[in-house]
Amino acid sequence: MAKKTQVSDIDRGVYDIINEERHVYRSDKGLNEEIIREISKEKNEPDWMLEKRLKSLEIYKSKPVPTWGADLSDLDVENIVHYVKPDVEQQHSWDEVPDDIKETFERLGIPEAERKSLSGVGAQYDSEVVYHSIKQELVDQGVIYTDMESAVHDYPEIVKKYFMTLIRPYDHKFAALHGAVWSGGSFVYVPEGIEVDFPLQSYFRLNAKGAGQFEHTMIVVEKGAKLHFIEGCSAPKYSVQNLHAGAVELFVKEGAELRYSTIENWSRNMYNLNTKRAAVDAHGKIEWVSGSFGSKVSMLYPMSILRGEYAKSEFTGITFAAEGQYLDTGTKVLHAAPHTTSIVNSKSISKGGGHAFYRGMLKATKKAHHVKSTVNCESLILDNLSVSDTLPIIEVENSNIDIGHEAKIGRISEEAIFYLMSRGIPEAEAKAMIVRGFVEPITKELPLEYAVELNNLITLELEGVVG
Q1: For residue 372, what are the β-bridge partners?
Q2: DSSP sequence for 166-230
Q3: What pTM did the predictor assign?
Q4: pLDDT in the model for residue 126
Q5: Phi–psi pair at 308, nearest 5 degrees
Q6: Residues 6+ apart with CB under 8 A from 10
Q7: For residue 267, how many other CB atoms are within 10 A of its CB?
Q8: What is the pLDDT of residue 1?
Q9: What is the pLDDT of residue 109?
Q10: CA 298 to mean position of chain CA atoms
Q11: CB 245 within 8 A of CB 127
Q12: Interaxial angle between packed helices 448-462 and 110-117, expressed in degrees from 0 to 180 and rounded to the nearest 10
């Protein structure tokens, strides 16, 4: 057998390429009223949004740092730059984007994906969206796909109706932080009965050192409409802390369907404290497909609020924790109406002393009779140094329900590795084959380009396990 070694980090290739910082505005470190007012002024926001920001700042100051999950004691928010405006205006032609930024997104495969399989693309760089496009046929059907800043100015009544109503500033400290400093993100509105045949995608790239990214995504899918939205995230590696505390609010109306796919590939100096929630009305359906890689710490639990009869939720997720990483992820489902159903399939992999923690909450209210829910958690541990935990919380307030939970934790079978090696397959590739098979239920739910990216990320993470 080859000698086994552990590595503290990996060469993440294109994901770790750093551009020279060029910005027209960079806020001071820390957080106070003056900084909030400056951010709002830079954005030329209406007074009602500034008021929301200042209220969120008050709530942020009053809230404690959560202590029930990952260790956040080393996170110094006062040493984070909360707003970095790059030296580029938003463009609608890819040719007009500055070369260094354009090359970054091209290396990540964004323009190619746009040409091949997307209905629209948004690209955020640091705190602002620098490129946005949507196919004309969608515009003709009344579909709106733009950045959140533009939506605040162009569609204020829709934004006022939904903004931070699912994720409220007083929910937790980092929701309040987001409400105070949010910048960038995507706004999507799909009119009643419209089916968007090809996905929309937004990609968020944080380049600035020691900064935070706080994009806000709002999607409204009206009655009987359908949409697939894809979100990608990455940042290069620095020796200082970076913070990601975005927010995603999804509104799925009666009979509508929304699939929300995410691959988060942050560097290992990142604290990823994202909040995502969906409200689903009668006969509606939300599908979450989630891949969590990178980051020093993650706390991420996409939530489905099934508030209409026969509403459905499906969650499919994969987490990969390596040395120095504590990835606390999972999902929450609130059954708040009769005849609602949910399916949760969560998989985690840990190596090199990494800690993968599944934290799930499933609740059925008193009026949510005839609920059906299935939760399946599987964890794969690649060595003797790593940890995997599962903490499912189930709250049931009536007896007319059908809920099942299953959890499995195990190691790669030495017999399986030996069998593959006896057929001429090197040990490293044998392990990789087993891991790829383990995550296959997730990759098959992604469009081809993103399934390829997911497999590439797994290959990167596996480097250094055997050598």
Answers
A1: 341, 402
A2: SS-TTS-HHHHHHHHH----EEEEE-TT-B-SS-EEEEEE--STTBEE--EEEEEE-TT-EEEEE
A3: 0.86
A4: 59
A5: -120, 150
A6: 322, 460, 461, 463, 464
A7: 19
A8: 34
A9: 61
A10: 10
A11: no
A12: 150
pLDDT digits (tens, 9 = 90+) for 127-161: 556 666 777 888 899 999 998 989 999 999 999 99
Report the pLDDT value the prediction gives residue 420, as an integer from 0 to 100: 87
Give the span between the Cα atoms of 310 and 371, in whole angstroms: 9
Per-residue model confidence (pLDDT) at position 438: 82
Q: Which amino acid, residue 126?
A: D
Longest dimension (CA), the chain: 69
CB atoms within 10 A of CB 243: 24
Amino acid, res. 259: R
| Token representation of residue 259 | 């699939």
Burial 326-365 (b: 16+ CB within 10 A, else e): bbbbbbbbbbbbbbbbbbbbbbbbbbbbbbbbbbbbbbbb
Q: Which two tokens stand for residue 65?
A: 């740092």
Torsion of CA 165, 168, 169, 173, to 10 degrees: -150
Q: Which amino acid is at 138?
A: L
The whole-angstrom separation of Cα 334 and Cα 301 is: 13
Beta-strand pair 297-300/212-213: unpaired
Which residue(s) pair with 116 in the sheet? none
Residue type, 414: E
Q: What are phi and psi of 11, to 5 degrees?
A: -80, 110
Tokens of 87: 């030296």
Q: Report d(CA 324, CA 328) in Å as an integer.
A: 13
Spans of the chain below 50 pLDDT: 1-10, 12-19, 238-239, 464-467
Give me the residue label for tokens 């629209």: 120
Q: Residue 426: phi, psi to the nearest 5?
A: -60, 155
Q: Contact at 8 Å (CB) between 319 and 289? A: no
